Amino acid sequence: MEAAARFGFVARGIAYLAIGIIGFMLAIGTAEHEPDGGGALAAIASKPLGYLLLWILVFGFAALVAWRVTQVASARRTYSGGHRLYAALSGIVYALAFLGTLRYVVHGRTPKPSDAIARDLTARILSWDGGQVVVLLLGLAVIAFGIWQTVRGLRLEFVDDLRMGWMTHGSRQAAIWLGRIGYVARGVVVLGIGLAAVVAALNYDPAEAKGVDAVLRDFAEMPFGPWLLILVALGLMAFGALSFLEAKHRRTYGGVPV
């Protein structure tokens, strides 16, 4: 399981690097793809050895699913209820990424833009009895997760998951700065998604819901927007680079990465 999870971190790094690069290109006006998962797949496929990288993503995401399932099902008492819940939700996200990437590689079916997925899902939930409350609570939960990711980066909590003592001084410094910038950028994007969900719930309008692509485009439209988007895009690339370091230096417990 340890080797599989470490391979999965490589796949996650590739995905975040691709999204970050597309976001950067969007900021300077040269983007050819949407800055989300589907756009990242298309961008990777268009490059030399692109389909080899896509298969790495397929197997990498599958490995991350197996890693999270192992954490959820583990009998070890070191995993709290909150950790198991987070592992379960993370596993679902990786499973969706696995299925979307596999469909793209095998059938050429490009995943829907994350913006469209967010609107469709919000519309479906709003159609339920009490759906407005559900969307509101989900939005608040996403906001809480975004805040947690941001705080995790600012307080350097992520270093607890790394074998810092095994790393060179340069690698430790790189991990600290990549993690700080990467987690804050990730948290800011997640915050934007959560805020959009709350607005959609309060206005009872699924069109207000947003995915990664729409949130990044919103950054570009703010005052000093292109510069702000460049910072966020660089942060997402930093998170991707941190994932590569995690592939080698993630701490393990009982043969399973924490």
TrEMBL record:
Domain DUF1206 residues, every copy: 7-71, 88-154, 181-248
One family name in Pfam for this protein: DUF1206
InterPro entries, per database record: DUF1206 (IPR009597)
Transmembrane segments: 7-29, 49-69, 85-105, 125-148, 183-204, 224-245
Transmembrane helix found in the keyword field: yes
Coiled coil: none
Keyword annotations of the record: Membrane, Transmembrane, Transmembrane helix
Designated name of the protein: DUF1206 domain-containing protein
Taxonomic source organism: Nocardia brasiliensis (strain ATCC 700358 / HUJEG-1)
